[in-house]
Amino acid sequence: MAEFREPPPLFDSEKNCLEDDNDDLFHSAVESQASTIKASPNHSPFENGEEIDLKKEEKTEDGSLFIDAFNGENPFGSTASPELISRSDNSQPEAKVPSWSSQGLKEDKDAVEDEEEEVPKPVQPDQHTMEITVKVAQRAGEGMGAYMLYKVSMCTNIPLFRRPKSEVSRRFSDFLGLHDKLVAKYLRSGRIIPPAPEKSIVGMTKIKMSSSLSPTEQSGTTSPTGGSSGGTPGAGAGGGLDFVERRRAALERYLRRTANHPILRVDPDVRDFLESDSELPKATNTSALSGAGVLRLFNKVGGTVNKMTYKMEENDLWFEEKIQEIESLEGAVRELLSATDALVLHRRELAAATGALARSAAVLSNCEEHTSLSRSLSQLADIEEKIEILHYEQANSDSSLLCELMKDYVALIGAVKNVFHERVKVYQNWQHSQLTLTKKREAKAKLELSGKTDKTSIAAEEVSEWEAKVERGQEEFNNISLMIKKEMEMFESQRVRDFKETLIKYLENLLGHQQQLIKFWEIFLPEAKAIA
Predict the structure, then answer these.
(1) Which of 222, 245, 236 lies closest to 150, judged by CA?
(2) Mean pLDDT: which of 39-48, 80-89, 275-284, 422-431 is highest?
(3) Any idea what the Cα angle at residue 490 is, between residues 117 and 327, rounded to 5°?
């Protein structure tokens, strides 16, 4: 009967299973362990029909080490490695197993992180300094051929320069020529080139038609009223000397912005401009009335028309947001410039009115018969004259700090927009190459269908040539996009620093003038109270 049949032997069934499935590593490990123990003369796999608990025999010292290496868990379940058992039976030397505990792994990870932190970082460009100052040197030439020479002094620790200090003389056209060279080199790659001051035909005509400058006037110093020494207050604000001083300051700011750029300041043309003692080749294309100047004007008009007619389908959200931000920034800066110009005009009008008040008080003091009142009116006239000078100084401070900063950033924002437009032109070239490639492929397919084998090879070469142009166009577009993002980061950080420094100087200047004004009135108040 089937119910009285004895079950088949346990190990015979396992043997059959192992023969049918040789890929079961766990069963093979158990079989190997069982055969090892069975071969031992002091052990038997069964006693009284029951299986011996092998766990007590397998917990050797080596086995515990191996288990501890895996955080107290045996990777083989409840069975021990036969190599460890045989090593324990043979009483061989104990093998040192490395500890792979969680604490050890954490220490190794910390050590790796420490090694990564100890890797030397590249030298930051800010560690290299360059100080540049521009002074008015002298006037050269006569008549309509006269021009101003500016003395450029440089002090730097950049090793690419031949000497740490240098002093050269440059004319205004040399500055414009340097800017044109940098634009030709770096604008196509996406660099933001600081703009040079614009030419002024009216200002230079005043300089050419005026007499030679005196040594005190060569330094560009003007009276606190904004005019020349000994002149009428405010009469020289728009004169030749004031124009030279404003141009000198603008050239100095231009060179300093160029020197702050880590790539532009080590350009060979920049180094020659700052170090070469010899006179630079005359930049003939910088004249406003030259053929090159007219050509630049036409190119500028053509670029403006292209900006208005062509609209690029922007796929990068960063550029779309940044373009809107630049447009908003330009409008805000222009509005602030207009308000600052109005403030300067009102301060000068206030200074002129204060001077008129001082003269009227002086006339009245001479007519007054009362002694103490006459003395008080005379002192009031003196105080009002000093306040007039303070108002002119404050107006000049507003103009030289706030107005010039706003003018510079209107020009800088224009340079940023030129870089963005250059990216659009690169995109246009890329799309033009893509369109031409499509046409070439269609022409090649038509030649192959018509069986004109003599022209097929030429068409294939043209297709390969335009494929390379498309690849270069795409690569150039990707490169200029990445470069513009890096340049904008530097532009934003530099803009914050410039505005911070200018605002601090302006507020300190304003506070100093207000403190002087308070002192003047504190001096006059006891005199006014003393009128009997």
Answers:
(1) 245
(2) 422-431
(3) 140
C-alpha 230/C-alpha 219 separation (Å) is 16
Position 388 confidence tier, pLDDT thresholds 50, 70, 90? very high
The residues pairing with 47 across neighbouring beta strands, listed in sequence order, are 50
Question: 271 with 193: CB under 8 angstroms?
Answer: no
| Tally of helices (H runs) and strands (E runs) in the chain | 16, 5
**Residue 82 amino acid letter:** P
Tell me how far CA of residue 65 lies from CA of 72, 73, 103, 105, 452, in angstroms: 9, 11, 16, 17, 80
Contact 123, 151 (CB under 8 A): no
The whole-angstrom separation of Cα 40 and Cα 125 is 76
Band the pLDDT of 206: cuts 50, 70, 90. Answer: confident
Q: Give the three-state DSSP class for 79.
A: coil
Instruction: Evaluate whether 45 touches 34 at the Cβ level (below 8 Å).
Output: yes
Average pLDDT, the chain: 77
User: How many other CB atoms are there within 10 angstroms of residue 29's CB atom?
Assistant: 16
The whole-angstrom separation of Cα 506 and Cα 194 is 23
Q: What is the pLDDT of residue 296?
A: 59
- Rounded distance between C-alpha atoms, residue 120 and residue 341, angstroms: 50
CA contacts within 13 A on the Cβ side of 395: 26
**Nearest residue to 285 (alpha-carbon basis) of 180, 204, 414:** 180
| CA angle (72, 78, 80) in 5-degree steps | 85
Q: Token pair for residue 108?
A: 């190794």
Beta bridge partners of 156: 130
Lowest mean pLDDT among 102-106, 445-449, 507-511: 102-106
67: Cβ contacts below 8 Å, ≥ 6 apart: 73, 74
Distance of CA 307 to CAs 79, 300, 426, 480, Å?
A: 79, 11, 13, 18
What is the model's pLDDT at position 281?
Answer: 82
Report whether 424 contacts 195 (CB < 8 A). no
d(CA 499, CA 509): 15
